[in-house]
Specification:
- The chain is of the alpha/beta class and about 375 residues long.
- The strands form two sheets. It has an eight-stranded mixed β-sheet, with helices on both faces. The protein has a five-stranded parallel β-sheet with strand order 2-1-3-4-5, sandwiched between helices.
- Helix 3 links the parallel strand 3 and strand 4.
- Helix 6 packs across helix 15 and helix 9 packs parallel to helix 10.
Length: about 375
C-alpha cells in the first residue's frame, strides 16, 4: 500500500479510534487521529496538510459530525476530500442528513477490517479517478435534432473544423449517428475499426491506444471517431460502450464535437447528459420548430440544464416567413446562432467529401461557423 495516502479520523470513543487507527496503519496509510472535531480542525489549520480521506463519527461532544463535515466542505482546502461517516445509527434520516452535509459513504462502528479496507480503497480510487478526469477532461459539444434534414452532420463537421482552425488545436469529431452516420463520407475518410468492435468488451476499461487506433486524422486538423459502418451494427453500441470509451476519449483532444443524429437512443442520451453544450439545429419551418420544442421538453424532463441547450437556425432553403425572432418566441428560448443559406456550396462540399469551411472559407456561412466556435470555446476560457 502506498504511503502517500493520509487519512484523518475523528472519533470520540478511545477504543474505536484506536481500532480504526491500528487497522489503517497496518494497511500502510498515514493516519492522523483526533477525539474531537475541533482538534481535527486545529490540526488541519496548523499542519497545512490536506488528507486524502476523512472518517468522522456522527455523535460527538461539542460538535456533531454533520457540523464538522459542513465546515470541511466550506473550506477550499478540504472541500473535495471524500468523507466516510462512522455511525452506530442505521436510520435512513440520519444517512440523509449525512449526505446533505456532504458525506460520501457510511460505515458501522463495528465494521470488519476487511470491509473497512474495501470501503477506503474504493473511495480513494474513485476520488483519484475524478481528479484525473477533471484535470484532463475535454469539452464536449453535441449536435442533435429530433428532425432529419436540418443539417445536423454538416454543422457537426464544420463546427469541429472551425474550432480546430480558430484555436489551432486538435479537435475530435465523434460520429454517434448510429443508424447511418455520414461524417466519414463528408470527410472522404474510410473507417476500418469502429465502436461496434467493442461490443461485449470483456474488460472494464480500454487503453487510450486502442481507441486511438479507431480514430482517423483529417487534413483540416480534426480527427474522426467514426460511427459503425453498417446499419445493423448500430445496435451493438450501447450505454456500456459509452462508459467504456468516455475517459480515454477525453485524452484524445481538448474539444470533442459529437454528431448525435436525430434519434433518442440510450447511448446518445448518455452522451447528451454528459455534454457541456447541446446544439439543436432547426430549419425555419413549423415542423422543425415543433421538433425542437419537443426536444427542449424532453431535455427538461431528463434533468438537462436548459441553459446548455442551444438552438441554431440553419437556413436550408432561401425564403421563409419564420424569422429567428419568431422562432425564439415560439420556443421561449433565444437562438444561439444563424447559419445563412448556401445550398450550392453545401451540396458541392458533401459530394466532394470536403468540409464546407475548406471549400468556401470566406462566405457568410463559414463566418457563422467560426462565430459559433468562438462563442462555444469562450465559455471554456471563463
Amino acid at each position: 500500500m502506498s504511503d502517500k495516502y493520509q487519512i484523518l479520523i475523528v472519533e470520540d470513543s478511545e477504543i474505536t479510534l484506536y481500532k480504526l487507527k491500528a487497522i489503517l496503519l497496518r494497511l500502510g496509510y498515514e493516519v492522523s487521529a483526533h477525539d474531537r472535531p475541533q482538534n481535527a480542525l486545529d490540526w488541519l489549520t496548523s499542519s497545512q496538510k490536506t488528507p486524502d480521506l476523512i472518517i468522522s463519527d456522527v455523535m460527538m461532544p461539542g460538535m456533531d459530525g454533520y457540523t464538522f463535515i459542513k465546515m470541511i466542505r466550506a473550506n477550499s482546502q478540504t472541500a473535495k476530500v471524500p468523507v466516510i461517516m462512522l455511525t452506530s445509527q442505521t436510520d435512513l434520516k440520519d444517512k440523509v442528513a449525512g449526505l446533505e452535509a456532504g458525506a460520501d459513504d457510511f460505515i458501522s462502528k463495528t465494521v470488519s477490517p476487511d470491509e473497512l479496507e474495501l470501503r477506503v480503497k474504493a473511495l480513494l480510487s474513485r476520488n483519484k479517478e475524478k481528479s484525473s478526469i477533471s484535470q484532463s477532461s475535454s469539452k464536449v459539444f453535441s449536435v442533435f435534432s429530433l428532425r432529419g434534414g436540418v443539417g445536423t452532420t454538416s454543422i457537426a463537421v464544420n463546427l469541429a473544423v472551425a474550432i480546430a482552425r480558430l484555436l489551432e488545436i486538435k479537435t475530435c469529431l465523434w460520429d454517434m449517428a448510429l443508424s447511418g452516420g455520414q461524417c466519414a463520407l463528408m470527410l472522404n475518410l474510410k473507417p476500418k475499426n469502429t465502436l461496434a468492435s467493442l461490443a461485449d468488451w470483456p474488460e472494464g476499461s480500454i487503453e487510450e491506444g486502442l481507441l486511438s487506433s479507431m480514430v482517423l486524422d483529417h487534413a483540416s486538423g480534426i480527427s474522426l471517431l467514426p460511427s459503425p459502418q453498417f446499419f445493423e451494427e448500430g445496435d451493438l453500441v450501447n450505454r456500456a460502450t459509452i462508459d467504456l470509451v468516455w475517459a480515454p476519449l477525453q485524452m484524445l483532444a481538448p474539444f470533442i464535437v459529437v454528431d448525435g443524429g436525430n434519434h433518442f437512443t440510450d447511448p446518445i442520451i448518455s452522451v447528451l447528459e454528459r455534454s457541456d453544450a447541446i446544439i439543436v439545429p432547426l430549419a425555419p419551418d413549423l415542423a422543425s420548430v415543433n421538433a425542437t420544442y419537443q426536444a427542449l421538453r424532453l431535455f427538461e424532463e431528463m434533468g438537462i440544464d436548459r441553459r446548455k441547450v442551444l438552438p441554431v437556425v440553419n437556413e436550408t432553403f432561401q425564403k421563409s416567413s419564420l424569422n429567428p425572432a419568431k422562432i425564439a418566441e415560439g420556443l421561449k428560448k433565444d437562438i444561439f446562432a444563424e447559419i445563412p443559406y448556401d445550398n450550392v456550396n453545401m451540396v458541392r462540399a458533401i459530394n466532394q467529401g470536403t468540409p464546407y469551411m475548406e471549400l468556401a472559407p470566406r462566405t457568410s456561412t463559414s463566418q457563422a461557423f467560426t462565430k459559433m466556435a468562438q462563442r462555444l470555446t469562450a465559455v471554456r476560457k471563463e
